[in-house]
Amino acid sequence: MTPSSNLLCPCGSGKNYQVCCEIYHLGQAAPDPESLMRSRYTAFSGSMWEYLLNTWHPSTRPMSLGNDDQVEWYKLDVLESSSESDKGKVSFAATFRQAGKWMQLREKSRFQCEEGRWYYVDGDAEWLELDPGRNDPCPCGSGKKFKKCCA
User: Fold this and answer.
1) How far apart are CA 114 and CA 36, in angstroms?
2) Mean per-residue pLDDT for 9-14?
3) pLDDT bracket for residue 69 (50, 70, 90)
4) Confidence at residue 64, expressed as pLDDT on a 0 to 100 scale
5) I need a labelling partner for 116 at 20 to 30 A (CA). Which of 31, 98, 106, 136 fits?
């Protein structure tokens, strides 16, 4: 499901989707690896499989992506981002819930720019299961205690 244009973008930029990731989903080239990473996170959260495949470097692109509707994406934290010439890196943590379990994907991603377009190449990923306590901050990013939010 594509996010509504007048709502905040799921990527966590603080901007409306219309002026953030939607422009890339509609075909504009992302200007840097971080923008592409954010747009890909939003695409995962909205099940935009074609966009994800189109922004994956051909050398590492899978043939298809499964429809994983059972994953609920909640929050993206970009930890570090850099680029030099035609190569880029983005470290991030993406929090999600799957089969009732809170999880976090931490990845150091690699990107390649070709003919003015950035592509996701691959990354070193770590999958963590989160176990929030009742009085811990909710992993969804609301700022509320877990017991008052998503428990």
Assistant:
1) 13
2) 94
3) low
4) 87
5) 106
